[in-house]
Write a structure and sequence with these properties.
The chain has helices spanning about 25-40, 55-65, 90-105, 120-130, 160-175, 185-200; strands at about 15-20, 40-50, 75-80, 110, 135-140, 155-160, 205-210. The protein has about 220 residues and is an alpha/beta fold. Helix 1 (about 25-40) runs antiparallel to helix 5 (about 160-175) and helix 2 packs antiparallel against helix 5. The two termini are about 15 Å apart.
C-alpha cells in the first residue's frame, strides 16, 4: 500500500488516471488501482486516455470497465488524438487538462514517468505537473524497447491475486496488441517481480512509481 497517510480518507479518495495510449494506465498502475479499491472508499475517479482510434477505444472501454467494476463514481474518457503525434496537438491537450482541473480535484494523479522515451508519454507527464501543481502525482513506468526504466522511489506492494487480475484483464481486453513482441504475461509479471524484489515485498510483487515531491 502507499506508505504515507492521505488526507480525507473518510470521505473517499478522488483519483485521476492519465494515459497516452489505451493500455498505459493498466500496465503502469493497474495493480495499484485494484489495491486502492480494496482498501479505501473511492469518492470519484476519472480515467482519461488521449490517443486512440475506433477499434482501440472499444478495447480501452472494455478494460476500464473490468478494472473499475464496483466503482460507482467513475468517468472514463477515451479521446481520439493520433498516436505518436500528441506533441503536435499540445495546445488542445493542455485545454483538455484545464477542463479536467476545472471540475475535478484529485487526491492522487497517476501519469507517465517524466523521462519516458516515448514523446507522447513525456508530454502528458509535463502537462500533469503544469496543471496539477498542488496534488500528489505518481509517475508510473511502461516497459518498452527503448530500455528507459530507471530507479523508482515509491513502491506499492501487490498481492498475487491482484497481479493475476491485472495480467488477465490486459491479455483479455487488448487482442490488437497480442502480436507485439513485448505484450505478454512474462513482460508484465517480470517487471512486477523485479519491483517486488527491490521493495522486499512479502508476496513478491509490486508496482513502482517516481515521486518527485511530497508534503507530509
Amino acid at each position: 500500500m502507499i506508505p504515507f497517510r492521505l488526507d480525507g480518507l473518510e470521505r473517499g479518495l478522488h483519483i485521476l488516471c492519465i494515459g497516452a495510449h489505451c493500455d498505459d494506465i493498466e500496465i503502469g498502475c493497474g495493480g495499484t488501482l485494484l489495491t486502492l479499491f480494496r482498501r479505501y472508499p473511492i469518492a470519484g475517479l476519472r480515467w482519461v486516455v488521449f490517443a486512440s482510434n475506433e477499434a482501440r477505444a472499444v478495447e480501452a472501454r472494455n478494460s476500464a470497465a473490468q478494472f473499475l467494476k464496483g466503482i460507482d463514481h467513475c468517468e472514463v474518457e477515451i479521446k481520439s488524438y493520433r498516436d505518436a503525434f500528441l506533441n503536435f496537438s499540445a495546445y488542445d491537450i493542455k485545454s483538455d487538462f484545464e477542463a479536467i482541473k476545472a471540475g475535478f480535484s484529485p487526491d492522487i494523479v497517476f501519469t507517465h514517468y517524466r523521462h519516458d522515451r516515448h514523446q507522447d508519454h513525456r508530454l502528458l507527464s509535463d502537462l500533469c505537473w503544469n496543471t496539477f501543481r498542488n496534488h500528489l502525482i505518481l509517475e508510473y513506468e511502461i516497459p518498452k524497447y527503448d530500455g528507459d526504466l530507471a530507479q523508482p522511489n515509491l513502491f506499492v506492494q501487490l498481492e498475487p491475486e491482484v497481479v493475476e487480475r491485472k495480467i488477465s484483464i490486459l491479455l483479455d481486453a487488448f487482442p490488437s496488441q497480442a502480436g507485439k513482441h513485448w505484450f505478454d504475461r512474462e513482460t508484465f509479471l517480470s517487471l512486477m517481480r523485479l519491483r517486488g524484489l527491490e521493495s522486499a515485498a512479502p508476496q513478491r510483487y509490486a508496482e513502482a512509481f517516481y515521486l518527485r515531491k511530497c508534503v507530509l
